Amino acid sequence: MNFQTTILLISFAVSVVLALIIIPILKKIKVGQIEREDGPRSHLKKQGTPTMGGIIFMLSIVICTIGSYLYLKSQGDFQMARNLIPMLLLTIGFGIVGFIDDFKKLVLHNTKGLKPSYKMLGLLIISVLYILFIIHVSNQGTGIFIPILKKEIILPTYIYIPFAIFVILATTNAVNLTDGVDGLSSSVCSIIITCLTVIAMIKSAGEVAILGSIAVRKCIRIFNV
Fold this sequence. Notes:
Blueprint: H1 3-28, H2 54-74, H3 78-106, H4 116-136, E1 143-146, E2 151-154, H5 157-182, H6 185-202, H7 206-224
Antiparallel strand pairs: 1-2
């Protein structure tokens, strides 16, 4: 059993335990779905459905990624362990923006949540910091692998930075749009992340495969909940 398979099983166990603990708490404090009045009328029946499952998602990812980091360090794989940290911080940063949005909707009862301009600004700042970090601190280069062509191209830094930021923001908002209509993001993301994780394994991008294995297990678990 390889490490990715092991972490997949561990992340499943962690998410199950957290779900058993957190979901009853959310029900107890009555944190329920608030449907926008300008949305489809059929969605109004979801009013009050326990939500903020992203808390389970985020906590599971943080716990399992830190566990993977410590394990890799103990095995002497310091480079892969270090490469996990920027991705984890990016995930946490986006998670904080999402939490603020949910907090305004569910606790402050503002159905519109965080203003789109504020949300985009937060995501932009986090994305810029992440890209600058992996280029200038982690020295991971500006190469992009194109699966269809089975070829890696090296972009100039001044092209790579805005392109990478655009991809991150576009992907994040695509997930937001998918989830915002009818809570479909977990099912869709589980398929996409599985594909990306397989590609990462083929390209020997171990840190991406590890985080992908953790994330896809969370998506499947939350989808089943």
